[in-house]
Design a protein that fits this description.
about 290 residues; alpha+beta; Immunoglobulin-like; C8orf32 fold; 2 domains; four-stranded antiparallel β-sheet; 13 strands
């Protein structure tokens, strides 16, 4: 088990006064069996006139707040201390044929809940290129989690991490052409391939340890919010995969939220009145306590 302190600050500055803003923040970690939240605080400046915590229907925590005080700068800061335990994985289906047969039993609550993650979504679509990527796996001889392992390794091997190469509007088709991107892109690509194979897959947002233990390499994506993938097996359940770093997430991965893709779980989004031109700065620091 590891213990971490997290500080995530999002700072906006505006050319003109913002008279009013309505915001949805998804930076509070969801409750999970392998995460224990010790302390948490979410502060907003200027102070909101109204604020409340909600659920988005997928079990994620939403902080809904409205700022009515005129402002030129705006900042949201998360301070978090939590314990993260290693995940445990069990043996799943022996083949995709077995998995597809079991998934049709919608009397099973886990199968029903997985269905929302089985179809195309805003950032996750597929094309002939995705069919080429999944072709070696479509004979069904591997189970869902074995397929996910193969895809994770292939994406890590064939796509290059390059900060700034893409943006939040980049599509899976763009990534297939460019062969470079960031963790968000690689996660969307892997999810598209998994869903194309009939494997429900979800997008995971979270953090990585900023500075690793002595002698251990620093993971890609540690200085910003990170993203990875979970693949569903009707016997074994959900299992995590990090295609950016080609590893199975463990104690160094801190989970915030699950969604169909990035659009479901953007860390901060909202509407403002006024403001004009704006700039944004984000800083993330994840420090291991033990």
């Amino acid at each position: 088990m590891r213990t971490f302190r997290v500080r995530h600050s999002t700072y906006y500055s505006y050319e003109n006064n913002v008279s009013r803003s309505r915001n949805l923040c998804m930076q509070l970690p969801r409750p999970l069996a392998y995460q224990n939240i010790l302390q948490e605080s979410l502060t907003v400046s200027p102070e909101p006139e109204t604020a409340r915590e909600l659920s988005d229907g997928l079990g994620n925590r939403l902080y809904d707040f409205t700022v009515t005080f005129p402002h030129l700068v705006f900042e949201v800061t998360l301070a978090l201390e939590l314990e993260v335990r290693a995940r445990t994985w069990t043996q799943g289906c022996a083949s995709l044929v077995e998995a597809h047969a079991l998934q049709t039993d919608l009397r099973n609550k886990q199968n029903r809940e997985a269905q929302i993650f089985a179809f195309p979504s805003r950032h996750v679509v597929w094309s002939s290129e995705i069919e080429q990527l999944t072709a070696p796996l479509r004979d069904g001889h591997l189970g869902p989690h074995a397929c996910a392992q193969v895809l994770m390794e292939q994406i890590f091997r064939e796509w290059k991490f390059k900060a700034g190469a893409t943006n939040i509007h980049t599509t899976v088709f763009d990534l297939l052409q460019r062969k470079e991107g960031v963790c968000q892109d690689f996660s969307h690509l892997m999810i598209a391939a998994l869903r194309h194979l009939g494997i429900p897959a979800r997008y995971v947002s979270g953090y990585l340890e900023t500075l690793p233990k002595p002698g251990k390499p620093k993971l890609v994506g540690a200085d910003v919010s990170h993203a990875w993938v979970q693949a569903f097996d009707p016997i074994a359940g959900w299992k995590d995969y990090d295609p950016t770093n080609n590893l199975i997430p463990g104690e160094q991965h801190i989970t915030l939220a699950f969604g169909r893709d990035f659009a479901d779980i953007s860390p901060l989004r909202g509407l403002v009145s006024g403001g004009g031109k704006q700039s944004m700065r984000v800083s993330v620091d994840v420090a291991a306590i033990s």
